[in-house]
Design brief:
The chain folds into 2 domains: about 325 residues, Outer membrane efflux proteins (OEP), CATH 1.20.1600; about 80 residues, Outer membrane efflux proteins (OEP), CATH 2.20.200. Strand 3 and strand 4 form a beta hairpin. Helix 4 runs antiparallel to helix 5, helix 5 packs antiparallel against helix 6 and helix 7 packs across helix 10. By secondary structure, it is an alpha+beta fold. The longest helix is centred in the last third of the chain and has 71 residues.
Length: about 425
């Protein structure tokens, strides 16, 4: 963790010593720098603040008041209640409190609703992080794959350069004609073009990865290689994984909690149809300069007064007002239920696709390895024939192109397999523990 914090604060200097960046470190940077995940955090904080605000409504409301005025002209004497026409000073002090005694369960249901909304926001925050992690992992694997493709293209260029040098010597010795040299140079030019294309793809993939974790792009940083996941069980079906995911995945939990919160919203609105009781109390005192018989503090002591009151509010036509609000809340509840169904559908389809892609990636990886082995042996034969002068440049170029294509397929199949292994493992256990 200290290593990552140091990387964030002093990134330009760290790159001199830090040459390797692992997938785990990329995820840690993602949680600190990714703005989409930060937005999910802020939404969770907002839901928590809303819960505290609702809870505060059940607390007694206590207030203290003070008033100081200078009266000029015609006014009423506070002691005699007679009209006077003079300048006098008036001060008053008071304190009071009010507390809701009964509101038909309005506040209690609002609190229950906000508790569910807070829990839903917390689960959604985790779901956002998981989604961003999947995208990050795809970008990480894409960087490794494009780098491997670039290395393969570079090796193809080196192989063609060796052949150009060999043919050039044979042409100078009069063994071969210039046409053969031109053909092998054309092959070299094609390989260099493929190398440049592979390099650009690699740089683009690196830039996309750095942008996702929101750090400056640095060519000196390399990514650590990924190893195959050992504990991937291929016997589990998509339906079994989906049944497990419904209980553990934050996407499903968030949608379910959000849907359940609307039941309490309906109850809170319907509570407005019931009578409400509010208990209140206050105490006060005042001073007026028109009373010359008592000084300031004696007047305050003499004018002390207080009261306790219990207010009853009975709505007469409350249902006419609350009925449209209840209907709107029920529509929102159905929308939340539909969103829950959509979330479950997306989760089920994602798991089905992950299982299918995992099986396809395993088969493709195995087939690609066999293809590379066969074409490597075939190319070695053609290359030896070319060196011996029994094969033409067309046969060599065709064998070389087939091998390059097979190597590219094997590289792509390898990293797709590594990606699908981790993705399927994530769907199996519902978290990223042990995957990075």
């Amino acid at each position: 963790m200290k290593r990552i914090l140091f990387l964030i604060c002093f990134f330009p200097f760290v790159t001199q010593a830090q040459q390797k960046l692992s997938l785990r470190e990329c995820v840690e940077l993602l949680t600190k720098n990714n703005l989409t995940y930060k937005q999910g955090n802020l939404q969770a904080e907002s839901a928590n603040a809303q819960l505290h605000q609702t809870k505060s409504l059940i607390l007694p409301q206590i207030y203290i008041s003070a008033n100081n005025s200078l009266n000029i002209g015609r006014s009423i004497d506070q002691y005699t209640n007679e009209y006077i026409d003079q300048v006098f000073h008036y001060s008053s002090f008071g304190a009071g409190m009010s507390v809701p005694v009964y509101q038909g369960g309005k506040l209690q249901n609002q609190i229950r609703q906000n508790i569910l909304l807070k829990e839903s926001a917390m689960e959604n925050r985790t779901a956002v992080l998981n989604t961003q992690t999947i995208l990050l992992m795809q970008g990480y694997v894409n960087v490794l794959a494009t780098k491997a493709l670039y290395e393969a293209a570079r090796q193809q260029v080196e192989s063609s350069e060796v052949q150009v040098n060999r043919v050039d010597k044979q042409v100078n010795a009069g063994v071969l004609g210039n046409n053969t040299l031109y053909e092998i140079k054309a092959q070299l030019a094609n390989d260099k073009f493929d190398q440049v294309t592979a390099l650009n793809n690699y740089r683009t993939a690196r830039l996309a990865l750095f942008q996702r974790i929101n750090i400056p792009a640095d060519d000196s940083l390399e990514l650590e290689a990924l190893l195959p996941v050992d504990n991937v069980q291929e016997s589990l079906t998509a339906s079994v994984l989906y049944d497990q995911a419904q209980k553990t995945f934050p996407e499903a939990k968030s949608a379910d909690l959000y849907y359940k919160s609307f039941a309490y919203q309906v109850k809170s609105i319907k509570a407005l149809n019931y009578p409400s009781l509010i208990l209140g109390a206050n105490i006060g005192a005042f001073f007026a300069s028109t009373n010359s018989n008592l000084d300031y503090f004696n007047q305050l002591n003499a004018t002390r007064n207080g009261s306790v009151n219990l207010g009853l509010n009975i709505p007469i036509m409350g249902r006419w007002v609350t009925r449209p609000r209840v209907e709107l809340a029920k529509v929102q509840e159905r929308l939340a239920q539909n969103q829950q169904d959509v979330t479950q559908q997306i989760l089920r389809q994602s798991i089905e696709q992950a299982v299918l892609d995992m099986n396809a990636a395993a088969d493709k990886h195995s087939a690609a390895q066999g293809q590379v082995e066969s074409l490597t042996a075939s190319f070695a034969v053609v290359e030896s024939k070319l060196n011996a002068g029994t094969a033409n440049i067309f046969e060599y170029s065709l064998a070389k192109a087939n091998l390059a294509k097979a190597q590219a397929n094997a590289i792509q199949a390898k990293y797709q397999f590594l990606m699908q292994q981790r993705l399927l493992q994530y769907y199996r256990q519902g978290n990223w523990e042990g995957i990075f």
